[in-house]
Structure formats: structure tokens, C-alpha cells
Amino acid sequence: MFSDLMSRVAGRFARVEPRRRAGALVLGLLADLPRKNCWTIAEHAGDPTPDGMQHLLSRAKWDADAVRDDLRDYVAEHLHDDEAVLVVDETGDVKKGTRTVGVQRQYTGTAGRIENSQVAVYLVYAGRRGHAAVDRELYIPRSWTDQPDRCQAVGLDPHTAFATKPELAARMIARFLDAGHHAPWVAGDEVYGGNPKLRSALEERGTGYVLAVARAHEVATQAGKFRADALVKKLPKRAWQKLSAGAGAKGQRFYDWAHINLPNEASGHRHLLIRRNRTTGELAYYRCYSLRPVPLAALVRVAGSRWRVEETFQAGKGLAGLDEHQVRRYDSWARWVTLALLAHAFLAVLRADEHARRPALDDLIPLTCNEISRLFITLVAERGRDTAHRLRWSHWRRRHQARSRASHYHRQDATPA
User: Fold this and answer.
1) Are strands 85-94 and 113-127 parallel, antiparallel or unpaired?
2) Three-class SS of residue 31?
């Protein structure tokens, strides 16, 4: 299956050498390495230096966007679900310095605070057979788009226009649908639910959505405009229903749910969906749209699918090195992230295939991506290297680090006091 996947993207590489090295890099991303970068992956692949891996990410001729399209087709084909949900969300990678593309001090959920970081928006395909990311867009802040020279220095078009995260999400959703794939629903958090342009774009396509909104979000009713948290106070007790938002690690995720029909002159059906925690009473709100009438349980299922993006980020970073790139230029970022998403998608598809072909026994849970990763590493990806290879790499690392240290000292001495 791994060979089939790499054969699928083989035509995107101009030469055989980068094609083979891309396969080695994906295997390295799947390997059990303490840290995944060009140095460690090159050593794992048996290369004498990291030069080949660095060349693959920076100067080799291949189309990362075309590989992204192959990834999207691969996931949609193997995880196909007529009721699939496209989930949009962003994640950040904490970075040092100011020269890495897109980096600035900004809030990132990864750290839970404002940090010097790089943020990207991802599109995840979530179906009953599994879930995997199918697209990515790097968020380029205004602090970059207002400086053409800075953009050009990292490989961006100097005329790059600023785009909000909802605009990046709309761009990826349009690419998915325009490619001929079908997904009747979109889910996302408040960043996306609070954006009227994204909601309108989805409605124009006839694509349903369940998008979270803030409690202060205003909705129009027949009695006028009200905040979401004011409307919920008008609901009678009988309006609430106990429903599961899907299975979690500790069982079904039960909440109390209610929905309010929202009038609109345009076609389709609109609702305000409210979720209430059965223990704490905490409330969450969602704007919903569907072309045809749907039951409350369908809206709840889509709302619950949003958690799949967190699982995808966790697996992508933990199993495929999604956040361990050490690159500054945009092209290198796009290439690393695309290959990392390809590695994670392989695990997700392999998991779905195993579940379909070999149902788990009563005393075993079904194979997880983590367990499949361990088995794949042990049985396929690990490559035994002799002592001489390890010693050569130790010598190369120490020599390179000595040169770097000497260069830093020389630059420091040349700097005026």
C-alpha cells in the first residue's frame, strides 16, 4: 500500500532521484525518531549527509500543490462517505526569530497564549471510515504582506495579498468541491462561524454547515435581532434533547441539545443550535444551514465531527512530524507539510482498510493509527544500519556543528560593540 501511494505521486517529480528521496523522507516521517528533520531522516535513510533531503525541500523540481491534489484524491477515494464533513481549523507552530515565513507574535492554541509562531489553516475530510487532512494554507499576516521585500526573501510573491483565515478556508473548500469531490457538510469553530462571507459562500454552493459562533453573536428572528445567549433563555425545558455528539475515548459524548429555526427569505433552512454540558451547564452555539430539512440528530453529528480536526493535528504532529519542519522559505514549508500530511493519510487509510478487512476480536479494540504506526515502523520502515554508518554521522554532525560555532564566533567578533 505504501508503494502504491508513492507511485500515485511519482509523476509530480521531474527526476527519479527526488522521487526516491521523497519516499525515503515519508518513511522517515513515519519512523520512530526522537526528532524529525533533514539530519535525522537522512541518517535513517542511509544517506551520508542531509544535503539530499535539504535539496528535496528547497531546490529540487517537483510540484507540492500537485502532490496535495493527489493527497486529496487519495483520501476522498479511500475514506469515501456520502455524509462526510469538511472540518476547517488552524494550528500554530512556535518558532524563534523573525525570518521564517509567516512568523509573528500571535495567539496559537498550541501554546495557549500569544507566542512568536507560524499559523496554518487545514481542511480535514471526516467520514465514518476515518479522517485525514486534505489541504493546507499558510496564514500570512499583514506584517508580511505590507512588506513586499520580506515576502520575496522567503519565496512568496511580493504582491501577496492578505487573506483572513476564513478566506483561506473558503479557498480550500472550493478546491475540494471544484475537483469533483462531494461533502455535504462543513464544520468549524467561532473564527469561521462568525464570518458572514464564508457562510454566504457555502450557501451559494448549497453546502450545509454547522459552524460555532460566540455567545454574543446576533441572529435575526421574527421578533427582531437577539444575541445567541439571550435567545437560549427563552427556550422551554421540553426543547432540550439528550443526544450523543459521537464516540470519544471514554464512551459516548452526551450533551443536551436544542435548536431554534431562523427565518430567511433565501432558499434553504437555517437554525441556531445550542449545546449544553450535562455536568457544568456550559453552553456552546452554532449557526446551521442545510438545503433541505434535516433532523436535530444530523446537526448534532456534524457538530461532533469538529473534534476530528484535533485528532488529526495530534496524530499528524505526533506520528508524522507535521510541526517539526525547520525551514524558512514558503516552498520548503509547503513541501514538508504536504509530505507529512501524505504520511498521516497513509496511516488513516491503512487503519480504515484493516478495520474493513479484519474486524477486531471481542477482547481487542480495533487497530488505531498509533498502533499501526508502531507495527509499520517495526515491520517495514526500520532500516538496520551498521556501526560504521552511525559513526560517520556522529563525525559529520560534530564537524558541521564546529563550523557553525566558528562562524557564529566570527560574526560576533566582527559586530561593533
Assistant:
1) antiparallel
2) coil
